[in-house]
Amino acid sequence: METDKYEISLYKKFGKEIWSKFIKGVRNYKLIEENDKIAVCISGGKDSMLMAKCMQRLQRYSDVPFSVEYLVMDPGYNTVNRKKIEENAALLNIPIKIFESDIFEAVETVDNSPCYLCARMRRGHLYKNAQELGCNKIALGHHFDDVIETIVMGMFYGGQFQTMMPKLHSTNFEGMSLIRPLYMVREEDIIAWRDYNKLEFIQCACRFTDNYTHSADGIGKSKRQEIKALLTEMRKKSSVIDMNIFRSAENVKTATIISYEKDGQVHSFLDEYEEYEKRHKKVKIKR
Questions:
Q1: What distance in Å separates the CA atoms of residue 109 and residue 29, rounded to the nearest whole number?
Q2: Phi, psi at residue 173, to the nearest 5°?
Q3: Between 121 and 235, whose confidence is greater?
Q4: Which of 97, 91, 85, 93 is nearest to 1 (CA)?
Q5: 138 near 176, Cβ under 8 Å?
Q6: By three-state DSSP, how is residue 64 classified?
Q7: Cβ neighbours of 26 (radius 10 Å)
Q8: Where are the alpha helices (DSSP H) in the chain?
Q9: Which of these, 79, 101, 248, 259, could form a disulfide with 268 (CB 3.0-4.6 Å)?
C-alpha cells in the first residue's frame, strides 16, 4: 500500500511527539508479541483514528510479525456520524469492518450511570466480535492524558489510588487481552496532528451529546472535564505536573501505604506492623 501524507506526517512532522512515544509505549509495556492478531477498535474520534494509522505503519515495518483488523462498532450512530466515520476511514486508507449493535438504545432510558454502562457494553461487544475474527487482543485509543486524569479522578472522586493500565487480561473472554498503544502520547499532540492535516473527526457521538459531534475539543460538565480544567490550571504553575502524576503510579512506596487491595483481599500496614512487634518480643524473651 502506498504511504499517504497522513502517515508520513506521523514520523516526519510529529516523529518526536507521536511516533517515538507510540513506539516507546509498545516496547516498554510489551504490548505486541509475535503472531498477535489485534483488533484495532475505532470509535471515529481523533484518538482511535490516529492509533489506527500508527498500527498500520508499525505492522508494515515491525520486526515482530502480527496482523490487524480495524474494527468499528456502530452502537446506534446517527446517519451523519456513521457517514463521517466511513469517509475518514477511506481518506486515511484504513480498511474498516463495521458491525452493528443497539447499545445507545439500550442505555437511553438508564438514569444511573448510563455512560459507565455504555462503556462496559461497548467493550464487551468489541471483545466478542474481535474473538470471532480470530483476534487475541483489542487495542483502544486511550492516551497519556486519559491515564493521568484517571489517577486524579480516582483520588478526588473515588477515594482510591488507581491508574489506567497499558494492558489487561480480559476476565470474561478467555485468551483475550486489551492494549493501549497510545499510552505515552499526549492529547495535545494528537490534536496538533489532526489540525495539521486539516482532519475532522466525530466526538462522542452519543445521543446524550449529539451537540458535540464534530471537531471541537469537547465541552462538558463531566468529572473528567473538571479534572481536565484543573490540570490545565496546574500546568501554568508547573511544567512537570503531568509526569509527576504519571510517575506516582510507578514509584509507589508500599512501606508508607495504609492499605492496599490485591486479588480481592485487603492488606493493611497493621499486618506487618504487628508481625514486626511479635518478632521483636520473641527476641527479647530469648535474651
A1: 39
A2: -125, 100
A3: 235
A4: 93
A5: yes
A6: coil
A7: 22
A8: 5-11, 20-28, 46-61, 79-91, 103-107, 114-132, 144-158, 187-196, 223-235, 241-248, 269-286
A9: 259
What distance in Å separates the CA atoms of residue 118 and residue 52, rounded to the nearest whole number? 22
100 compared with 61, residue with greater pLDDT: 61
Alpha-carbon Rg for the chain, nearest whole angstrom, is 22
Q: What is the 3-state secondary structure (H, E, C) of 166-188?
A: CEEECCCCCCCEEECCCCCCCHH
State residue 168 phi and psi, 5-degree precision.
-145, 145
Q: How many helices (H) and strands (E) does the chain have?
A: 11, 8
Q: Are 37 and 67 in contact (CB under 8 A)?
A: yes
Cβ(16)–Cβ(45) below 8 Å: no
Q: How far apart are CA 203 and CA 213, in angstroms?
A: 4
Q: At what angle do helices 223-235 and 144-158 cross, to 10 degrees?
A: 110
Residue type, position 47, single letter? D
| Cα 167 versus chain centre, distance | 9
68, HSE (Cβ side, Cα atoms, 13 Å): 23
Spell 163-172 as b/e; 16+ CB within 10 A means b.
ebbbbeebee
Q: Of 107-121, 137-151, 267-281, give the range with the top mean pLDDT.
A: 137-151
pLDDT in tens, 143-178: 999 999 999 999 999 999 999 999 999 999 999 999
Contact 38, 137 (CB under 8 A): yes
Distance CA(196)–CA(205), nearest Å, equals: 23
Report the interhelical angle of 241-248 vs 223-235 (nearest 10°): 120
- Phi, psi of 244, deg, nearest 5: -65, -40
